[in-house]
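Materials and Methods. Structural model of Transcriptional regulator. The 124-residue sequence of Transcriptional regulator from Mycolicibacterium iranicum was retrieved and submitted for structure prediction as follows.
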Amino acid sequence: MTESMDSCDLLCLDLPHAESIRASLPNLAAVESAAAASRALGDPTRLSIATALSNGDELCVCDMAWVVGLAQNLVSHHLRQLKIAGLVSSRRSGKLVMYRLTERGRQLAAAVLAPIRAEEVDHV
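The predicted structure was written out as tokens:
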């Protein structure tokens, strides 16, 4: 029989410490919203789009499709998903629809991409 290293063998709750941590947790709605935003960037195509928007500030679907090397209808689908998650906003400019990261999208993309960008700096 193997010992489980994942749980304590006895109940040793440090109630004051545990309660202070519990009280500091965000409410369930905020956690669910954050999880949905994180899932939105969990797709490689959407993360590539967010990276392009992070580097290019504002792009139309045509430019975005060329930048990420995918069809416009596929890019439009992924931009819609990012918009639903609150990570991207859009505005119409004549016949074009321009997309940009929201502040939340910018912060989350930066956090997800930080290790990749750190590796790039280390290899220079």
